[in-house]
Structure formats: C-alpha cells, structure tokens
Specification:
12 strands, alpha/beta, 7-stranded mixed sheet, Rossmann fold, 30% helix, 27% strand, 3-stranded mixed sheet
C-alpha cells in the first residue's frame, strides 16, 4: 500500500488544500498520515477539523512514498523549521514525491529542493521561490521530476491527482 504524509499547520491551514488531495489519495487506496508540530486536533482557516497523527519529528521518510506540504497562513510555521526542511531534502534525495500547495512552497524553496526546478506558489511566495533558485512559472500546477507544486485552493484537485499519478507510477 502506498503512503503519503501531509505536513499541516496546527491552525489556519487551508481547508480544501488538505481535504481535497487527501480524499483523492484515500479513495485510490493510498494511506494518508497527517503530521504537524503537535499531535491531536488541528483546525483549518474555515474551521475544518483534522487529527495530526504524528509530530513532524516522528516522521520516518522510509515509511512513505510522498510528502505533501499543505498551504494556508499557518504554513509559515514550517518556513524555517529545521525538521520540515530536512524532511523535504530527505524525501527529495530518496527520489520520492515532494509536493507543496499554496504558500507552503516557501518551505521547499527554503529547503533548497527547488533549485533549477519549475515551480509555482501562491503569488505572495514568488520572491521566496526565486530566491531559492526555482524557475517560478505562476501556473496553477507544476510537475518537475519528483517535485509537484500548486498555487492555491483552486488547484487542489489537480494537485491531488498529480500526486496520485506520480506515486502510483513510481516503484
């Protein structure tokens, strides 16, 4: 069974950027584990409730096929978080799927995994991507190797489908 870990802020994550890709993966038989800076209940910007199964420090990249950084204002908690940055690199270096939606792309840029890659982000993250060496496109969705980025909630379904396609064709 394929497994994905969703890195989600404890509060003010973007609801649909979490639950739409999660549903797409789960409906296809992928096990989704949610991780945050704490275990227990987490809350989206519009009140969606989810459960964080793990802290990000408890994630073993060997246990997962993909890592998904969820956007929304709360995602800034991960921009400079050394564990979140390290995880992005570990998944990337293992050639596993590394993905982000909305402003969460800033974490990937800060981790250095977007250097020379086509990528997109919510418009207010454009400078961070460019500073991180990405080829910022502004498109709703970008796929470059094992990196998948999307620019916001309108792209959540396409983002989820892209992750599903990539992890089911890999390995």
């Amino acid at each position: 069974m394929k497994k994905a870990v969703f890195i989600t802020a404890p509060e003010v994550f973007r609801d649909e950027e979490y639950y739409k890709p999660k549903k797409i993966l789960e409906d296809a038989g992928v096990q989704v584990v949610t991780a945050s800076v704490k275990r227990g209940e987490i809350t989206g910007r519009f009140g969606y409730k989810a459960i964080s199964d793990l802290t990000i420090g408890e994630i073993n990249p060997d246990d997962f096929d993909a890592i998904v950084y969820v956007g929304g204002g709360g995602a800034s908690v991960f921009f400079e978080n050394r564990i979140a940055l390290k995880l992005a690199n570990e998944f990337y270096n293992s050639r596993k799927t590394v993905s982000s939606i909305c402003i969460a792309g800033t974490t990937l840029a800060n981790a250095g995994v977007l250097k020379g890659k086509k990528a997109t982000v919510f418009p207010d993250g454009k400078d961070a991507l460019i500073k991180g060496g990405a080829d910022y496109t502004g498109n709703p969705l970008e796929i470059d190797g094992n990196i998948i980025t999307a620019n916001g909630p309108e792209a959540a379904v396409d983002f989820g489908n892209a992750i599903l396609k990539q992890i089911t064709i890999n390995k």
